[in-house]
Amino acid sequence: MKNRYLILPLIFSVLLSACNSKKQQSKDNDSSTVISPYFGQKTPGLTAEIFAPGVISLEGRYEHSVSFSPDLDEIYFTGSWKDKSTHIYYSILKNNKWSTPQKANFTKGKKKEEMESFMNLKGDKIYFTAYDSIFGDEKIWYVDRLKDSWSDAKKLESPINDGMVFYSNQAKNGDLYYFNISKRKTYYAPNKNGKFPEVKEINIRGAHAFISPNEDYIVINARNREKAERKSDIYVYFKEKDGTWSKAFNLGEGINSNFLETCPSITPDGKYLFFGRYNEKDGLSNIYWASTEVIHQLKDAYFKKKQ
User: Number of folded domains in the chain?
Assistant: First the structure.
């Protein structure tokens, strides 16, 4: 029987979806902390680098789907060990040090597994996917920030949850983007005073779409149709003046490789791209990051050519 931590990513890859270099071996209960910012790492340029090896990216664990708080002092990501349930992990920056990553357990056992968390750009709500069975009941849930903790988790009341859905994220204006597994399409729900009464399909290819804070571009992972050996690359679409989306642009060799790249996300300040890369033994994914300058260079060239 295939391991649980391999089933989700491999099948999502077949659906043009799914969300690593060698990492130091570590344990969930490791009490070490790392000095800020970004866990003491030098920020990357146009070539992707592994993120926080031995702390966030661990050897033998599958990780993906990174989200930071607006002040960049909290990180949430998805992880799962061999034959274990999938969990959301978090770490908090306090007194110039990051806490040891711990499991969030937002639903407190209501759902067996949780993944793909996203903190909104106000910092007062986290959306995430919770489910009991793979390709059975994936829905979008959320928690609200309390003074020193999070509220009880609630399933989002919206047409968004009609079907199996995952990978939710928001723009600054509150519009919520997500992937409908049932229909294999990306949608967004316009924000109506904090509610999402309607959904609209986005005419783009791929999965795990993540909207930029200003909604001027959207990153996804999709099969590279020009190179058969590339099962999944990171692409970007740019928003046109009329609100439609441009063609997809591959982010290039600095970001993509012959391994699967999946589950892209953008930091709240728009400076960094995060994603998963399946380059570890046994097909596990580690977290990588790079400067979003690679996106801005493509964007400038594209719109300059259109003038």
Answer: 1
